[in-house]
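User: For my dataset I need records formatted as: sequence, then structure tokens, nothing else. Please produce one.
Assistant:
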Amino acid sequence: MGTFDSGYFIYLIDHYLNKQVVITDSLQYAFSSTRDPKSFGADRFEIQFSFVAKPVVNVSGMVLTSDIPTGNQWLLNGAPITGATQSQYQVTQSGIYSVQVSNGTCSNTSEDVVFAITGVEGLGDAIKAYPNPVKDKLTVELTNGFDTINVYDSQGRLIESISSSTATNQNSVDINFSSYPKGLYLLGVFSKAGNFSIKAIKE
């Protein structure tokens, strides 16, 4: 497929044959006419331009947002993330993120966003999460308390949010994983001491 620039495509449409081809520098389009007036009429051919603007990714905490509302496909290290087709994506791991936007005929891809998740390494006893892997109950201990703990699945979808205003203990929270499918989860811990992430595996 040929483009003049990323996101731009030009198509030749043959209405008589119901055919559409992408115009490139090397394109040679052979056709013939018959006694049918439609085969040589002025309305047989049409030139159509298609364009997708280069999307821009905005970063807010661990949430990536495309400035284009539809046609999104999020990529991690250049590969599509299964099911990540909304305008927002919740980051679940470190890597190079981008979003590809398509209008059905052509597409364009944003600049890369390098995302490094801050884990609990180096925090000593400030944050603990156990047992991990977890089967039923994951206990999160926080020496300095917390504001909010969010639980995200591997597709970045928020599945549970725990607020300190409703928690019975500001320094220890039990999260019930018993009903969650097996797989990787991300806990986003938001506190006055900083924002951290914890990877949890449900087995």
